[in-house]
Specification:
The complex is a heterodimer. By secondary structure, chain A is mainly alpha-helical. Chain A contains 17 helices and 4 strands. By secondary structure, chain B is of the alpha/beta class. Chain B folds into 2 domains: 5-225, P-loop containing nucleotide triphosphate hydrolases (Rossmann fold, 3-Layer(aba) Sandwich); 232-297, Alpha-Beta Plaits (2-Layer Sandwich). In chain B, strands 6-7-8-3-9-10 form a 6-stranded mixed sheet, with helices on both faces. Chain B has a 4-stranded antiparallel sheet with strand order 2-1-4-5, with helices on one face. In chain B, a hairpin with a 2-residue loop joins strand 4 and strand 5 (68-69). Chain B is elongated, with a radius of gyration of 24 Å. Classes of the chains: A mainly alpha, B alpha/beta. The interface between A and B is medium-sized, with 20 and 29 residues. The complex binds adenosine-5'-diphosphate and magnesium ion. The site of magnesium ion (MG) has 5 residues of chain B, from helix 1.
Chain lengths: 400, 314
């Protein structure tokens, strides 16, 4: 019970501090907006990789193929000025296009006749963008052929047609259905390139979780400061003259920090969902799990700062110092994929990197709670380590 | 006296990295009395208080508080005592009311008892009409009073004050001293530390004098005075000096000596309050007016000077 009263007292003190609203909510919202806009570069521009499409087929299937390419999350088809093979190759080599595709003449006719005409794909398979584009091109082709197969099987089951024209008409109609279905597929296969380019695809999918994690620790400035003030003003000593136990005092302060951090994450994800359309809340269990472990980690961090700092300046210095390391090394400001291999390897060990990864799993990869248990478990381990250090430090300090 | 012991200190010691801040302390506080620890800054008063309130583990010895050992039953000790720390220990971003409610809860008070005690303490400390103002905006004296009030919330049988009047105006100090007496009058045992001899003298039933971590003397005020002879010095200015009068005074019980110093007469007496009326009466019978009078009581300052060879406040 005393733990609860202590936490309530802390929270009412946190709310009283004007800085709290700034660090917990206002700054992260501003930074997410700024950084997200920077990464999105130009809102008008299509963020997907351009693929030059040379259309030499006059039939319906060429057009369907173009449509299917357009449904991709990774690439978008563009019409090149010159469609000869040499010009297309030049486009790819100069990286103006991630790949080029030539749809040969008679593509529709041959395909409907049951033959398999060849698509010509020009791509640099050593470039991550090329690999991603290649996969998307293959995927669209597979889908088209699948749709054709399905339509033909359907036609067979339908039985004899009055004329070949009627059969063709039937085939095309069911093809159109199949293509339309791919626009909103039940199972979405997204091919994400391992290299550059994609982060720009959604600046807010980087900025929102990045800033949320960055400000989770910055938000601990006021709670950390309140804990320091309690130690210094001897209110902590006074508390120890009541028969409350040390463990209860630590638990009360931790609880207050946890609640503050948890509410911060909840509000920021709601904001990210409403303002940037990031689907944080698709699976509430996954989000609550990540919000809980992030708040647990930042609370342990706040407790450690509050017990380590000797004065107000140290609170700010320690929080900002640690947060900058967590933030820059851990990939809060730019995707670790953009960094060099060594940098990224170190970065991926940061608790912040695991937190960001958990939230990105949710918004980019529609992860359920089981998928994020990995990042969550690592954050819990970090939280326990910080917590243990804080408790050790607190015990020796309170015995003064 | 058949009273029991509220606090019994037995060979209490504290070393800070080898430096003996408190050394083999022995004293007893009886139930219902005000007992003062008097000593200059650095004497070891706060260290002693910290050990008695179970904040600091002793390096040796023990103490019983209402029969509970501070080393073995800290929980029971903490529930028995109220501690007024030397520093102002409250949340200055919260109001007096919020502070009292919070601390009351920390002391385990709930519900109607909590709200009753909060109101009573607000009245006692005279903070009732400023109860909703932030404590940080209070004057030093008001903060001191709140600091004291918090320690009284759970109606402890024993209250320990650590220099509660340091750095405040005379009016607030008066209020606090009266408050201590009032609490004591309600049956609460008080252990009071101070480096002001006037406070120890005014408040205490018994006094222990501390210096360099050791007790150098203890007893009632009178007992301590006897250590320095305990004689009051009375200097009188008379309208005339009949020889018979001075001879009569020399024969009075309690008068040690009478000497003439020019216009004045100096007497050394055991107890000025008992002797003075007789002096006035006999002078009136001899038609002599006492036109001036100066009484010098022996004080604790003199005791401290006598025992340590230095002044209490330096
Ligand atoms: N935490 C500490 N570490 C080392 N020395 C201390 C500590 N606290 C007090 N002292 C020393 O112990 C002595 C007694 O201090 P204290 O109990 O505060 O005296 P008082 O309350 O009578 O002024 C002083 O010499 C002081 O410097
Ligand atoms: Mg002191």
């Amino acid at each position: 019970m005393r733990i609860l009263y202590l936490a309530m007292k802390d929270l009412s003190q946190i709310i009283r501090q004007k800085k709290s609203a700034l660090f917990l909510l206002i700054l992260p919202v501003l930074f997410t907006g700024l950084l997200g806009a920077v990464f999105t570069r130009n809102g008008q521009e299509d963020p997907r990789l351009p693929v030059a499409l040379a259309m030499r087929d006059a039939g319906a299937l060429g057009a369907y193929y173009e449509t299917l390419l357009g449904y991709s999350d990774t690439i978008h088809p563009t019409a090149p000025g010159q469609t000869d093979a040499a010009s297309l190759e030049q486009l790819v080599r100069s990286q103006k296009a991630a790949a080029a595709v030539i749809i040969p003449e008679g593509f529709s006719r041959q395909t409907l006749a049951g033959e398999s005409p060849r698509l010509t794909v020009i791509v640099d398979r050593n470039a991550p963008a090329g690999q991603a584009a290649d996969r998307a091109i293959q995927l669209a082709a597979t889908r088209l052929l699948g749709a054709v197969q399905t339509a033909r099987l359907g036609a067979e089951a339908h039985g004899p047609f009055g004329s070949e024209a009627a059969r063709q008409e039937y085939l095309l109609a069911s093809l159109a259905d199949a293509v339309r279905a791919w626009r909103d597929p039940l199972v979405r296969v997204t091919a994400r390139p391992a290299g550059t380019g994609n982060a720009a695809a959604d600046g807010f999918a980087q900025a929102s979780p990045g800033m949320m994690v960055f400000f989770a620790t910055i938000g601990m400035i006021t709670p950390g400061y309140l804990l320091l003030a309690e130690r210094r003003s001897r209110t902590l000593a006074r508390m120890l003259t009541t028969d409350i136990r040390r463990a209860e005092i630590i638990a009360g302060h931790t609880l207050a920090m946890f609640v503050a951090g948890f509410l911060q994450v909840i509000l920021l994800t709601l904001f990210g969902q409403a303002a940037f359309g990031l689907d944080y809340w698709r699976d509430p269990a996954a989000l609550l799990l990540m919000a809980g472990v992030l708040a647990l980690w930042s609370a342990a961090f706040g407790l450690l700062i509050g017990t380590l700092a000797r004065d107000e300046n140290q609170v700010v210095l320690l929080v900002m110092g640690a947060t900058l390391v967590f933030g820059f090394v851990g990939g809060a400001f730019f995707p670790l994929d953009l960094a060099g291999a060594a940098y990224a390897a170190v970065g991926r060990m940061m608790p912040s990197a695991w937190a960001i990864r958990g939230f990105q799993d949710i918004i980019l990869r529609a992860a359920g709670w089981k998928t994020v248990t990995g990042p969550a478990a690592i954050l819990v381990l970090y939280a326990l380590a910080f917590y243990a250090l804080a408790v050790l430090r607190f015990q020796s300090d309170a015995a003064r | 006296m058949t009273s029991t012991n509220a606090i019994q200190v037995k060979g209490l010691k504290k070393n800070y990295n080898g430096f003996p801040a408190v050394h083999n302390l022995e004293f007893t506080v009886r139930e219902g009395e005000i007992f003062s620890l008097l000593g200059p800054n650095g004497a070891g008063k706060s260290t002693t208080i910290s050990m008695l309130s179970c904040l600091l583990p002793p390096s040796g010895g023990d103490a019983l508080i209402a029969g509970h050992s501070i080393t073995r039953a800290s929980g029971s000790v903490k529930r028995t005592i109220g501690v007024v720390p030397q520093e102002i220990a409250l949340y200055d971003d919260l109001s007096a009311h919020q502070n009292l409610v919070f601390w009351g809860r920390m002391y385990g008070l709930r519900g109607s008892r909590l709200s009753r005690r909060v109101d009573e303490v607000l009245d006692l400390t005279g903070l009732a009409d400023r109860r909703h103002d932030r404590a940080g905006l209070y004057s030093g004296g008001m903060q001191r009073r709140l600091n004291i009030g918090i320690a009284l919330l759970h109606e402890p049988r024993i209250v320990i004050f650590d220099e509660p009047t340091v750095g405040i105006d005379p009016q607030s100090r008066r209020r606090i001293l009266d408050g201590v007496k009032e609490i004591n009058a309600r049956g609460v045992t008080v252990l009071y530390t101070t480096h002001y001899m006037e406070e120890a003298q005014e408040l205490s039933h018994r006094i222990a004098i501390m210096d360099h971590g050791r007790l150098i003397a203890q007893g009632t005020h009178n007992e301590l005075m006897r250590m320095v002879g305990g004689l009051h010095r009375i200097t009188l200015t008379l309208s005339r000096k009949p020889a018979g009068l001075l001879a009569l005074w020399r024969m009075l019980a309690g008068v040690h000596s009478v000497s003439e110093e020019g216009e004045r007469v100096r007497l050394l007496v055991q107890d000025s309050t008992r002797v003075l009326p007789t002096l006035f009466e006999s002078a009136a019978r001899e038609e002599t007016h006492i036109t001036g009078m100066d009484i010098q009581e022996p004080d604790l300052e003199a005791v401290f000077l006598h025992l340590t060879g230095k002044a209490l406040r330096d």
